[in-house]
């Protein structure tokens, strides 16, 4: 294949858009792990729920943007309900129990979706204003891909401001390091956990909702995304938001180029990238050395 | 103000406190003495709800608070200043202090409270934007006291505030404790440094723990009267 600059640039943009999805997904996973110490093996399931909520909301109201907001809100609430009724009971037990609970949820929910929506993929349309592409000289810029990159940047900025400038963000940062001391300063940490969990799930749902027009919306679409989100978080360093962002963007580029040049290798390349980075830097790109 | 009645506390199956009882009255400084590992910190943790007792009662201002979550006890006016300091390392000095006053933001004037703790600890004011984790041991100890103090607690439980600090800083902390006491603070203090503690004030009471039980108690004068027994419990020559 002839590799012109146009194709390379196009592939970079595709990679950025894919990376944007990874970043949204993985930053949610990272918040949940950092705050609650829970390895959320149902993360991809909430991503899938985001896509289905998006599909359902759009078929009810007909508007992409209303559907997007509704999907994120509804799935976050489902996440909150799950945390309050089930997950909360397992805090303070061995890390394996919450992990198994999430793992089980990741099997159970897709089956429910299969029964409710069937096995055949659902189609979510691009919003009218983001269809097609704009041209800059010879360069084709697909509007929706560009939108995803902008959205990711805005979400990261909002997350940063939330974490650094608000009281609840400060509590989340503190509880990530020392939940007992935060509790001993008069703060109801368990409520903060619910908020943090819902935030993480909301990010997964957002990723699924915006990915819906580009991918097949099927009940098992989240399965491999869970694994990929974990890869991103491991690359970036457990519990680091900046790491999740950089890791997501790197993985997006890798997958984008490998699927162009050697499509058979695209799954393997994900793990090779992770292995390579871990060999060079065992705690991930931005990982902290020790954490209690 | 605080009444601990016959509490038994365990870590898993190891029985640490064997029926500890003690009392703290308003405006008093009460000290817990005892050898390493005797259960002083565990007593504070039991009161705070960090490691609730299996039986026995903790009464605070007439109310049974046994087994309440720590954050609820803090909202009732208790504060713990832990021996391992537990400064949040990734938060700035200012944020660590804000964390301490968050639960009382509505009742108190936040900037006045900041001024109050900076008046006690002027050095912290120079470090407000610095990360908690980058402070020296002495500064961290000051920050942990300041963080406990900033919400105007009614009863401060301070665990070994001078442990591992240089003599000059120890004296500085002792001065802070004297000042707190003069201003009417109620303090339950754990301290290994017997002479320093006794020098804080004649107006204090002490409990001496041995093997998870209260062995002796009294004012400094009363303890001096049975100095041999105190020495035996603490394993030092006074
Ligand atoms: N988290 C824990 N799990 C199990 N055992 C513990 C735990 N914390 C303390 N212990 C044990 O309980 C006993 C009392 O500990 P505690 O910390 O209350 O002693 P202390 O009087 O404060 O000692 P020090 O002067 O060294 O601070 C010790 O034997 C200790 O080994
Ligand atoms: Mg101790």
Characterise the protein shown here.
Chain A is an all-alpha fold. Chain A has a domain of 202 residues. Chain A is built from eleven helices and two strands; from the N terminus they run H-H-H-H-E-E-H-H-H-H-H-H-H. Chain A has a two-stranded antiparallel ribbon with strand order 1-2. Chain B has 238 residues and is α/β, with parallel strands linked by helices. Chain B folds into two domains: 147 residues, P-loop containing nucleotide triphosphate hydrolases (Rossmann fold); 68 residues, no CATH class. Chain B contains ten helices and ten strands. In chain B, the strands form two sheets. Chain B has a six-stranded mixed beta sheet, sandwiched between helices. In chain B, strand 4 and strand 5 form a beta hairpin. The longest helix of chain B is centred in the C-terminal third of the chain and has 16 residues. The chains are: A mainly alpha (292), B alpha/beta (238). Chains A and B meet through helix 6 and helix 7 of A and helix 2 and helix 3 of B.
Structure summarized in a few sentences:
The complex is a heterodimer of chains A (292) and B (238). Chain A has 292 residues and is mainly α. Chain A has helices at 5-36, 43-61, 64-85, 96-117, 143-165, 167-177, 179-183, 189-211, 223-236, 241-261, 266-280; strands spanning 133-136, 139-142.
Topology diagram in text:
The complex is a heterodimer of chains A (292) and B (238).
Chain A: H1 5-36, H2 43-61, H3 64-85, H4 96-117, E1 133-136, E2 139-142, H5 143-165, H6 167-177, H7 179-183, H8 189-211, H9 223-236, H10 241-261, H11 266-280
Antiparallel strand pairs in A: 1-2
Helix pairs in contact in A: 1-5, 1-8, 1-9, 1-10, 2-3, 2-4, 2-8, 2-9, 3-8, 5-6, 6-8, 9-10, 9-11, 10-11
Chain B: E1 2-11, E2 14-24, E3 29-33, H1 40-48, E4 55-60, E5 63-64, H2 70-75, E6 78-81, H3 93-101, H4 110-120, H5 122-125, H6 137-149, E7 155-159, H7 167-182, E8 186-190, H8 194-200, E9 204-210, E10 213-218, H9 220-225, H10 227-234
Parallel strand pairs in B: 3-8, 3-9, 6-7, 7-8
Antiparallel strand pairs in B: 1-2, 1-4, 4-5, 9-10
The complex binds adenosine-5'-triphosphate and magnesium ion.
Residues 40-41, 83, 159 of chain B line the site of magnesium ion (MG).
């Amino acid at each position: 294949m002839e590799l012109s600059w146009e194709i390379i640039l196009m592939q970079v943009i595709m990679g950025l858009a894919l990376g944007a999805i990874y970043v949204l997904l993985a930053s949610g996973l990272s918040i949940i792990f950092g705050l609650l110490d829970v390895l959320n093996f149902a993360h991809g399931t909430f991503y899938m729920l985001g896509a289905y909520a998006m599909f359902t909301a759009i078929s009810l109201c007909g508007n992409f943007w209303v559907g997007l907001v509704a999907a994120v809100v509804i799935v976050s609430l489902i996440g909150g309900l799950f945390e309050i009724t089930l997950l909360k009971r397992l805090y303070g037990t061995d890390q394996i129990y919450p992990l198994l609970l999430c793992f089980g949820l990741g099997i159970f929910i897709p089956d429910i979706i299969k029964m409710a929506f069937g096995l055949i993929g659902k189609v979510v349309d691009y919003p009218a204003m983001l269809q097609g592409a704009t041209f800059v000289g010879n360069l084709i810029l697909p509007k929706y891909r560009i939108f995803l990159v902008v959205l990711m940047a805005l979400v990261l900025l909002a997350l940063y401001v939330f974490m650094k400038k608000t009281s609840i963000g400060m509590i989340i940062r503190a509880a990530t390091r020392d939940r007992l001391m935060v509790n001993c300063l008069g703060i109801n940490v368990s409520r903060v956990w619910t908020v943090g969990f819902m935030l993480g799930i909301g990010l997964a749902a957002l990723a699924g909702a915006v990915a819906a027009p580009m991918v097949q919306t099927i009940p098992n679409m989240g399965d491999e995304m869970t694994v990929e989100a974990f890869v991103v978080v491991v690359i970036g360093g457990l519990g680091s938001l900046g790491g999740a962002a950089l890791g997501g963007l790197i993985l997006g580029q890798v997958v984008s180029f490998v699927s162009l040049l050697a499509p058979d290798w695209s799954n393997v390349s994900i793990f090779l990238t992770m292995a390579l980075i871990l060999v060079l830097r065992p705690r991930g790109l931005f990982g902290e050395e020790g954490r209690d | 103000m605080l009444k601990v009645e016959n509490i038994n506390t365990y870590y898993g199956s190891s029985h640490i406190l064997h029926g500890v009882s003690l009392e703290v009255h308003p405006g008093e400084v009460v000290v817990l003495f005892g050898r390493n590992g005797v259960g002083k910190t565990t007593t504070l943790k039991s009161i705070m709800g960090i490691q609730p007792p299996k039986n026995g009662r903790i009464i605070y201002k007439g109310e049974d608070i046994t087994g309440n979550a720590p954050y609820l006890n803090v909202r009732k006016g208790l504060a713990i200043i832990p021996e391992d300091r537990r400064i949040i390392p990734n938060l700035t000095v200012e944020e660590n202090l804000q964390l301490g006053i968050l639960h009382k933001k509505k009742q108190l004037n936040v900037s006045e409270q900041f001024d109050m703790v900076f008046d006690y600890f002027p050095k912290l004011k120079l470090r407000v934007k610095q990360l908690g984790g980058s402070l020296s041991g002495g500064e961290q100890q000051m920050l942990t006291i300041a963080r406990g103090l900033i919400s105007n607690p009614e009863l401060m439980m301070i665990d070994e505030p001078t442990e591992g600090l240089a003599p000059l800083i120890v004296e500085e902390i002792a001065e802070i404790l004297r000042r707190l006491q003069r201003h009417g603070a109620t303090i339950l203090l754990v301290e290994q440094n017997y002479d320093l503690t006794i020098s804080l004030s004649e107006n204090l009471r002490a409990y001496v723990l041995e093997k998870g039980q209260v062995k002796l108690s009294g004012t400094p004068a009363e303890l001096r009267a049975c100095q041999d027994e105190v020495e035996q419990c603490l394993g030092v020559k006074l």
